[in-house]
Amino acid sequence: MTEMIYNVIKHPRELKQHPLNIEIYGLEVAEFDLVESIRSKGILEPIVIKEDNTILSGHRRWMAAKDLKLDKVPCRVVSFSDPVEEVEALIEFNRQREKTTSQKIKEKHKLEWIGAERKAALERQKATQLKGKDTNGKPIIGAVHLDATENKGETREKIAEKIGMSVGTMLRAEKVFNKAEAGDKKAIELMKKIDTKEIKINAAYIEVKAAEKPPVAANNVFGNSCEIISMSSEKFDVPINTRNKMDGVQFMQKLPNTSIPCVFFDPQYRGVLDMLSYGNEGDRQQDRVMLHQMTDDIIHNFCTEINRVLVPSGHLFLWVDKFHLVEGTKHWFEGTDIKTVDLLVWNKETFGMGFRTRRVSEYLLILQKLPTRAKGIWSDHSIRDIWSEKTNGEGGEHAHKKPINLQSALIKSVTREGDVILDPAAGSFSVMISANNANRKFIGCDIEG
Questions:
Q1: Cis omega (within 30 of 0) on the bond before 239?
Q2: Residues 6+ apart with CB under 8 A from 133
Q3: Which stretches of 68-137 are DSSP H helices?
Q4: DSSP strand E in 266-360: where?
């Protein structure tokens, strides 16, 4: 914990800038209005310093005091239990200041470092707790910083909130920033324009992406056609053709980058039930009500991991209901390279519910990771965009069984025999059946097992 020690009076020449403050926010300049305010009223809020006179909060007040040649400034001295807490405090002290996008992304990187350090501390504490006692032989009882227990997606959401940006905007800005830091001249110029508000972040991101060349080595691109080269099943460190029970995001984090050519994803949401507001959903819908529901943030986390594991030009088949189709799913893919390329309607050949029209169909969005190509990748051109198929007993009694034959046809069209197909929210595991029918391997899981 931070410990307040005492208030003191210091001469400005005794104080010094914090190196991290310079790294994130640059050299400070005292604005004219601040100088004039301190000239007439003095420094009303003490400058926060460490015991060695390093400034944590109040760099601009300090600069103004030097400009005014003051010989006394009020200070509050604080100490910290560890360096991580000190970095966290410095960023918190600067929360209310107006910042450029570059400064916000630098804050993001430091906050990620803080999270990693907290996680490492938690792991060390857990390892010690396994021994039962501390170094003095006493039982260990102690609180752990909450951030250390968060998963990757939750940390990203919190970081975006702390720096005052949406997750998608933050990821796009970071893409441009990282390119600029790596020395890309185009990105350097764009980052300057973002900071001076001459160009919007999204427009700069589009320019950076457009300048990138397709990943030739990873995708064997030849002209307008290409062959997707995916990883053999023997190289995956997860069970193949097995009904795994675990969280889908955590499962995908076990998979290598750019290793999967085809993914099916059926998010568990209550779009139809909530939008139609039946109230008494009846026995037919109780199985759906009991299933674990996904929020938009959870679905975004799934899509981000899917983007990571998909090979370039790999396909994602995403099941959506009519309401998500109309309202849009674009926000699920913010910060990814996945684009919608087609749409397929599944006629279930069953008479469904509805106050107005009766539901007999579901919708399958066909998405592809950049570069989006069809020639040489999509092999079966006989698949119609309206597919009629009843579900049979395969998949058991699960409420969201999907058409086995349709999924098999799609798998055959975008993969080769022996390829590995992924479903991170498998439900009835119908994709496993479809993949095996198509002589492909399957990896996947479901939180319900």
A1: no
A2: 139, 140
A3: 83-93, 101-129
A4: 310-320, 338-347
Tokens 């996904």, residue? 294
Fold classification of 233-446 is Rossmann fold (3.40.50)
Q: How many CA atoms are closer than 13 Å to the CA of 27, on its beta-carbon side? A: 0
CA dist list (Å): 418 to 218, 376, 411: 19, 18, 11
- The answer to whether 3-93 and 233-446 have equal CATH topology is no
List the chain domain ranges: 3-93, 101-211, 233-446
Q: What are the percentages of helix, strand and coil residues in the chain, rounded to 5?
A: 45, 20, 40
**Global confidence as pTM:** 0.51
Which tokens belong to 390? 């009843």
Pick the CATH number of 3-93 from 3.90.1530.10, 3.40.190.10, 3.40.50.300, 3.40.50.10540: 3.90.1530.10
Could you report the per-residue pLDDT of 249-302, keeping only the tens digit for each?
A: 999 999 999 999 999 999 987 544 444 444 444 454 444 444 457 888 899 999
Quick one: tokens of 17? 């800038």
pLDDT tens for each residue of 56-90: 999 999 999 999 999 999 999 998 888 898 898 89
Q: Give alpha helix (H) positions in 26-100.
A: 32-41, 59-67, 83-93
